[in-house]
């Protein structure tokens, strides 16, 4: 009887470990997909001032909230992208630009990414909410604050 119970326990434990490892692998794949969106569309679009490239990272209707130098900040994604289009890009300004992913957390079809973005005379902390829509990870909300002070 002890042998049967021990065998059953070991099989159950093995299945649990296997399920956890499979879940972690799937999560890593999704984290990599989100990382690709951040690096190849979000950071690159901001740096180059390419509003079309940057726009591919956002779900239409996305809202942006936060503060810059202590002042409240609110824009729709359309206004934000228009601002990107009509300003001098960090690339063209010759000033340093650095985008860094601090953390990405994924649960099913939603995710949150915490980023640090240094550009011009600002040091932004961004929190991006993602949703996997039709197999594609898109930003559905952006919150930012200027931590330069």
UniProtKB/TrEMBL annotation:
<protein>
    <recommendedName>
        <fullName>Lumazine-binding protein</fullName>
    </recommendedName>
</protein>
<dbReference type="Pfam" id="PF12893">
    <property type="entry name" value="Lumazine_bd_2"/>
</dbReference>
<dbReference type="InterPro" id="IPR032710">
    <property type="entry name" value="NTF2-like_dom_sf"/>
</dbReference>
<dbReference type="InterPro" id="IPR039437">
    <property type="entry name" value="FrzH/put_lumazine-bd"/>
</dbReference>
